[in-house]
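re: ur question from earlier - yeah i can do the single chain one, its not a big deal. heres the input i used so u can compare w yours
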Amino acid sequence: MSEVILALDVPSREDALHLVDAIPEVRWVKLGPVLLTRTGMGLVGELVERDLQVFLDLKWHDIPNTVAGAVAAAADLGVAMATVHTLGGPAMMTAAAQAAGPVSLVGVTVLTSHTPAEWALTLGRVDQPLGGEVTRLAVLGREAGLDGVVCSPREIESVRAVLGEGCPIVTPGIRREGDEAGDQARVATPAAAAAAGASHLVVGRPVVLASEPRAAFRTIMEEARCGH
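and the output i got, formated as tokens:
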């Protein structure tokens, strides 16, 4: 079964702790830049003390020395998984991988919010299919020493094909049938993403905004299990 990661996309420390305490089935949580900017890194320790696996999603993209230092600091905090951006290049990713220690380091490829037109505008290139870009960056990350990648549900199968079994493929953009996509341009159901080979499914708003978050989370877990 794919692991389901609950994205703590809430406004405060209190809201985050209340949410995880209300859903005892949660094993993994994702912390991103909005909540951490509001609360500080002390929240990481509080979640680790609750025996939760913390996925620190800050998508580091900087010079190699700076990113390596940030990754080492995450390891000291007890973080289980963290992200760097593959567009930072091979030297940056290699330095990060060498500093990771026990942290599973995954490389962000193409954000799920990107459309082909926006990606082409960003890179200044045309006729670059997103699927090919994702697999190219995934291979670049693995060659630099990263453990796995982050990609949208639409690229899971192609990434699994080039990276093989065993490497983490973390997939945001998970939506149940009937859930609004929001600002995610490339989405899939939990069952479809699990069946395609994702190891970790990241779910935020479908749970956080649900009238009954625990029930929503359990439904997503069941759907992910059915995908295998």
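The beta strands are 3-7, 28-31, 53-60, 81-85, 104-108, 148-150, 169-171, 200-203. not sure if urs matches, ping me
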